[in-house]
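seq:
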Amino acid sequence: MTALLILKSTRLRPLHHLTRYTTRLGRQARFGLENLPQSHAHLRNFASAIETPTKLAYPETLLIYHSGTGRAVFIGCFKLTTIFLFTWSCFLLAPPFFNASEEPNWVAVAAIVGGAFPMVFAAYITAPFVNHVYIKIPFYARRSREHLMKWVQNIPPTTEIGLTTINFYGRPRATRMFVSDLRRTKARLGVANLVRILTPAQAAARRPWWMGKQPNLFYVATERVKSRQTSVWQKVFDQIKDS
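struct:
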């Protein structure tokens, strides 16, 4: 009886009122901290963590660029065709010239080199081609389109980004890095427009032979982007510095 009188006299509210009050404080703190400079980004992340929304508009890893299925299929088939052409030159075209007594040996060698040239050329010009670009966005930027576009105006250098290319035999290969690792370039006669700047530790690291060389040159189109987040990729590309 005494406890009930104490509770009534102090006018304590139920727990769900306290929860709504805490959520309101978190909302006010988050909107106040979003205008802080970039050096205080950790405070914005802390404020956004106070209020946990029930539904998010975007996933943590967001697709911001897609080259198109038709273009990716064409490049993959083009690479495989040149591989088959080289195999045909080695095992079907060259042996008859090599075994023919009236033909010099250099004719067989020329047939093999002629079959290898399209394969090497295709691998050289299509290696930087990027099919997908993904970016990892923070928690508060996932709430709505407005929050996403506000965050993308000044992307932190440590934002993770992933570029998916097509390897030598047509299989997708993902390369992850930070946005600050990318620079604009005109390497390979303009075939690549982005280059990854490796740290000394990354350059000295050895990869297993079966994994192949880590791609460092990329080509991502800035026009005719087939993605719902085209404006996001344009903002990201504008903030990448020239090499």
